[in-house]
Every structure is written in structure tokens, then in C-alpha cells.
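Late entry, written up from scratch paper. The run itself happened at the end of the previous shift, but nothing got recorded in the book at the time, so transcribing now.
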Amino acid sequence: MHEIPLTMHAMVLTGHGGLDKYEWFETWKTPKPQEDEVLIKVSACGLNNTDVNTRTGWYSKNVNAPTMDTELGLNIADDPAWGGTPISFPRIQGADVCGYIVEVGQNVSKSRIGQRVITDNWVRDENDPENIEKVGYLGSERDGGFAQYTAIPSKNALEIISNLSDEELATFSCSYTTAEGMLARAKVMDTDTVLVPGASGGVGSALVQLAKRRGARVVAMTTPEKSSLVEDLGADIIISRVSSSWVDEIKSEKISVVADVVGGSLWKELIEILECGGRYTCSGAIAGPIVELDLRTFYLRDLTFTGSTVTETAIAKNIVRYIEDREIKPCLAEVFPLSELKNAQKNFMEKKHVGNIVVVP
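Output as recorded:
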């Protein structure tokens, strides 16, 4: 029987702003699992853009800058969280948990104790699970895994049987469900050629693998120093995003889908590259949320645009199956102690890595 301490170590977000808004606690109260919940002893937790965007308030419509240009304070209104409504502080972030169930709440079978799990990050309305207006996110609307323990709904703790390390398993939840949700919205299949503009990031590296899993041809954009690692993920063609001829290089391919989390100044060219009847799917705007669109390109070329945030309920379970069947692999860039989360997030924001950064408590 695991002895659960009354207090735990936790990195706590105290408000919107810079990295100084994180505070380290060694005597934070350990949560208790409520009805239909489980308590997870966190082994590792991945970082993602939502952590940064929520901390800085980047989701506010008052912010026009790229994600990583908003470190030193913002003029945010009352819409600084992903869902358009404020979150409450203090808040423990961290959605990408890998750990072990050590306690269960009422209505949860004790047989779950001891299970190794990763998280489905979307907390849904039990009576209306497919309603995307009734969802929350781990580490945003409720506490997540930047701590030694986290209590979450039992349905969100997905058992996994794998020989991968805890740190490797902590790379999957957010990035891979986001990527699979994008590809599902765009109905990607084996006849498609998919362009991934930000192929070296967590979602980008997942997009490469998951598009290949669907049988698609993948054209990946990245910087030269990251090319070999992206190629190892299965990309068919690597295009240097810093090359002056990248547009001409891509035009030699027949791009049917652009799967984008970058946005910014390249966006107009990405849309122009799409073939007639092509699809653009988006789940981020790291390089900037405000872009220029010629509506004539959109309608005269019969393009389809899909935004993708809340995933279908089956997707997280599918990702677990892909991991267990070894159809996808982790892309672990760095591991930091949880107490050094500020340094980990600083490295994350510099975007010099390929894949995902993880912290361990």
C-alpha cells in the first residue's frame, strides 16, 4: 500500500505574466480524489504550448504577437484562457501526465490502484461528453501534473501497458491527441500529401508520424539543424523553412493538406500552395495569430478550413492503442526536475529542440 503524504511538492502558477508567476512549494496540500476520481502519483509530465499561452494570457483577443513574444506582461482583457473565460488562481498546470494510480474515490473500482496511466486531457461533461462547449482542460480549468500528485476524473486516466519509460510516455498526451484530432478533422488518408510547417515541435513531430500512419506522404518544414531528426520520424521530404526558395521547392509537390500550428508571416504562402479542393487544418499560431487571407483564394480554389482544439472522445484511447502497438514512437528532447520548471519552459520557448520537454517530480 502506497503511503500518501499530507503535503507534496508542486510548481504553482499564481497569475498571468512572466516566469516569475511560478512559485515552488514543498508543503502544498496533497489532493484527495473525489467521487469518480483517481489520485495519480506523477512520474513525469510533459510541457506544451498551452502552459505558456495560459500563463502569459496569450489567448486574449487583445494579443496579436507570436506565442513566445509575450513573456514580459500583457494588456489582457477578461478572455485570457483557451476557452475565452478566465481561469482561477492559484493553478497547478501540466496536462501530459504519466504516473500510477495510488488511491481512488467513491464509485471507482479499487482494482485501478497500481495501474500505470497517461491522461486524456479533455475533462468532459459526463452527461454530454461530445458537447465541446462543456469541456475543461487539465492544468487550466482544473489542476494538472506539475506536482507529485494529481487528482483527475477516472475516465481521464487511461491505463497503458508499454515498455517505454515514464518520461517517454509523458510526451504523448497533448501533442499526439492534438495532431490526431487535426488529421481526423481534415480526413487525411493514404492518397494525401500533407505539409507540416512546424515539423520539429511536439505537435509537428506527432503530425509527421500520425500522417505517415494513415499512409499519407509527408512534406516537413524545419530548420537545417533539425532536419535529420525530423527525417527519422518518417518525413518523405524535408524543406528548409529558412531557405529563400522554400515556396518553389514545395510547389513541386501536390499538397492536399496543410496541418499547421505555426501561422504567422508564412501563412499566406501556405494557403496559396494548397491544391484546388485542398484542406487546411489548424491547432495553433506560434508565429502569430493575425494573418492575411485573400477570400478569392479560399473560395475560387474550393478550399476547406478546419479549426481543431477539442478532440473527439475516442482519440485519446486510440493514441494509447497506437503506443501499445508500437505504431508511433516518443520524441523526447530533454528532461528537467520539476523544481526547475522555469528553466525547462525557457528552453521550451526557445524552440531549439525537436519533440517534447518533460519534467519529473
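The mean pLDDT is 93.
(Scratch paper discarded after transcription.)
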